[in-house]
Structure formats: C-alpha cells, structure tokens
Amino acid sequence: LERFTEDADGADVAFIYYSGHGIEAGGENYLVPVDADVPSLKDAGTSLVPISAVMEALKKTVPVTIMLLDACRTNPFPADAMVRRSPTASASPIGAGGLEPVRGAKALGNAPAADASLGTVVGFAAEPGHPALDGAAGENSPYASALLRHLAAMKGTEFGSVMRMVTEEVYLDTKAKQRPWINESLRRLLYFGVAPVEPTGDDGLITGERRQLLLTISGLPDPKRAQVELASLQEGVPLDALYGVLKALGTEKIPEDPTDLQKVLDAQAERLKKMMSERAALRTDDPEIKRLVASADKAIGQGAIVTARKFLDDAVGRVEQTNDAVDQAEDLVKQKRLADAAIYARRADASGLVFDYNSAAG
C-alpha cells in the first residue's frame, strides 16, 4: 500500500479493491494481512492496516480516492480478543458485525476550498454491522461478481450510478440477504472514459435492461421492496423477474396502495409460474427458435422482461416464417399426391385396355 500510494502521485483517481478479512475496533476499521495473528492485535496500527491512514495518505496525492472493501467478513480472531492501536493505547473489543462506516468523511458541502481533494468513496460489500457472503467455493463473492459485471458500464455512466447497479445486483443475487453500502463525499460527478468490453448480441440486450432495472430498484422505497421480497418468497418466483415486471409497468404506474400493489404482484407471479412450468413442454427442432426461447428464459431470470418479450416476438416471427414454408411444403405434397393418383389412374386405364382387370382394379 505504501508503494501504491507513491505510484498514485499525479493520477486522477486512486482505485483500491480489497478482498479478505476486515475488523472494526475502537471506531477504526482495519484490513487484516494474511500473516496477522493474535499478537498483531497488540500493535494494530503497525501490524494491521488502518483504513483511515490509507485514505489520508492517498488524499494528499490524488484528487479522488475510491476504496471498495469486500472485507465485511466474520471475525478471524478469538471472540474475546482485544485490539490496541499501539502497545500503550487502551484496548477495544472487535466489533461483532464486520466493518463499520468510515469515520471522519467530510460532508459534501463542508470541504474547505483550499483542499485539493475532490472527495473519497468507500464502498462496503455489506451494510454497516453486517457480514458479507463469500459465495460458493471456488467462485467470486457476490460483491466481486457484481463489480466485474457492472464496472464495464463506467464508460459514459456516472460512477455513482454504476455503484447503485452493483448494490442492487448483490441484493438480487443474494435474494435480499446482502446489500452493499457506500460512504462518499465526492464534490464532482465522476466518469471514467475507458471500460472493459461490453457484452454484445443477446447478452448485451439483457445486460442493458438489467442495468436499467437495478437503477429502478435503487429508487424504490423499503416498504415496496419488502412487499416484493415477500411475494417472491411466497409464490416461489425469482425476485429479479418480479422486480422486472414492475419496471415494465413503469415506476410512475406502480400502485402506491399496498393492497393494489399486492394484486399486481399476485397476478404477475401466477403468470411467471405458468411460464416457468411450460418451459419443459417446448419441443422444436429449429435452432433459431431454440436460441430465442433460451435467451427469453435467461432475460426473464435477469428481470429483463421487455427484452424477453422482444426475443419471443422474434421467435413468433420465426414460427410464422416456418409456417409459410410448411404450408408451401404441404401444397407441394398435395400436388404430388394428385399427380401420383393421376399416374395410378392412367396405369389402370392402360391395364384395362390389355384386359388386365386385376391390375386395373388395383
């Protein structure tokens, strides 16, 4: 981190992503090195990494500092372990619920004009006091997966919107069990000019609507969220798809009355269940129809309901095209049958002319 701070001198933005253990004690958040042990806690200011110290050092050399902490983990030390910032400092217990909000961040309008810093962003994988999920064995955590998926949107999209996408992606991916949290004091809108390659084709369409959905969810009040979560759980339909239905309806048309909203959720949940149950009944040999239907299923699972409708519209168009071809083929078969019948009839007539009445009758 010291080398990183030196290398960041002169850069526009310092961007740090940390995945590992993190603890809170005495109002300070610490990153825990892989070789840290219980004796390290007696001199945490040196043996561990105080986040505030890193942020202060970077603020002196870089206008904007972004630190994303996938470190809201459970405590790796004994439950009764105590932390001292220095050997002579008073001891503090380790917080039980992961990292806490970073102290001392300046309010947006209170930074002195002489301060060259344009602000800081500290992103946590989970809300204050809540541990984050690690994800399946051998896979990225939900927070890391969401970052990888949506940092590609940074080109042309304001950074705050990107982080809202990440927050709601984790929320949906964990079925509302985890919701990232951000402490930011930026004094400018932040855009990045270069981003990873975006997905194209069907995946690109799904990802585009998915991002719109995530921003829509970020603006929904908690009571509506709770109602959607409960409906998803009770009806056994994907949370993403149920939110996607509301986005397709339009935020301005989402009922304010909980009873009316419940009617919408119940009706659309039944429709989703019906569609999900009918998947297995689909039988087609047309590879294009198979692709479109599979993409529609994927889009529904991602809450991209409008995109799913487009795929199914295209599938219907393909069916109609093939129906025309089938109709033409059936006409050709009919004409062939008539031609074949005429040949049989002519042979029967010829058989009669040679008094072969058995063949004529056949």
Describe this structure in words.
With 362 residues, the protein is of the alpha/beta class. The chain contains twelve helices and nine strands. It has helices at residues 2-7, 44-47, 51-59, 142-150, 159-173, 201-218, 222-235, 239-249, 258-277, 287-301, 305-353, 357-361, and strands spanning 13-19, 21-25, 28-32, 49-50, 64-70, 82-83, 92-93, 119-124, 181-184. A four-stranded mixed sheet has the order 1-5-8-9, with helices on one face. Strands 2-3-4 form a three-stranded antiparallel sheet. Helix 4 (142-150) crosses helix 5 (159-173), helix 7 packs parallel to helix 9 (258-277) and helix 8 crosses helix 9 (258-277).
